[in-house]
Amino acid sequence: MNRTVARIPAKPKNHSRRTSASKPVDARKASLADSVYLGVKQNIFDFRLLPGDRFTENEIAARLHVSRTPVREALYRLEREGYLQVQFRSGWSVRELDFTQFDDLYDLRIALESACVQTVCARAELPALDDLKSVWLIEPKRRLDDGEQVCALDEAFHGALVAAARNREMARCHQEVTERIRLLRRLDFTEASRIAATYEEHAQILRAVLTRRADRAIVLLRKHIETSKTEVRKISVHKLLSARRR
């Protein structure tokens, strides 16, 4: 078994091989596929599986003690999301990071979110955005410091601004961009200083939107996303170099 597969946990996360006889077979297969999917994806996110690493379905199945069917389902799901690619006659590999593509996607985010903020601020009736105010307009002592939680809240913040424009096609496109940059975007919340900056910058953007200062909100939004893009690139390069040295 090669060095790549050795990084995969020996069993799917939170999965026991004992299953109830009454549980439908299809449900068990779906559960197994979900477990494999989450396990492999987490290893990619944690840089235990590195860009360019190769493995086969049989190796993953043997390591996780499952059949190839749930493994294949999980791997094709990860391929659709852009994390893996099929190597003709030689199994699978982790897709190389394309920083040019990530930059383009971040730029698309800026364009979409700026247009939506402009629309929201111009509405005759401004959305209340109470959910956002309860998360981001709070005292510093009430702020969260868990990176995964803040990452999820960050996605929800930007998604809510887009949704408030009530353009379903823009919201769909924005969600697709969000999913495609998630691998690197989450790294922006691995440092306390970046979490603190996210709270401060979101609060400034939100206040500008609530007071219909569209121009200011767009300037703040652009700066916020550009800074995040720069920081994420630096962090990802550092983590990749550190992982390869290990």
Provide a descriptive summary of the structure in words.
The chain has 246 residues and is mostly helical. Helix content is 65%, strand content 4%. The protein has helices spanning 25-45, 57-64, 68-80, 99-122, 130-136, 147-163, 168-185, 192-210, 214-245, and strands at residues 54-55, 84-87, 91-94. A hairpin with a 3-residue loop joins strand 2 and strand 3. Helix 1 packs across helix 3 (68-80), helix 4 packs across helix 7 and helix 6 packs antiparallel against helix 7. The chain is elongated, with a radius of gyration of 21 Å. Mean pLDDT is 89; it is low at 15-22.
Keywords:
246 residues; Arc Repressor Mutant, subunit A; Four Helix Bundle (Hemerythrin (Met), subunit A); 3-stranded antiparallel beta sheet
Intertermini distance: 19 Å
Please name the fourth-level CATH homologous superfamily of the largest domain: GntR ligand-binding domain-like
Rg from alpha-carbon coordinates: 21 Å
Q: What structural class should be given to the helix and strand makeup? A: mainly alpha
Number of strands: 3
Shape: elongated
Read across the widest sheet, the strand sequence of neighbours is: 1-3-2
Indicate the percent of residues in helices: 55-70%
Element-level helix/strand string:
HEHHEEHHHHHH
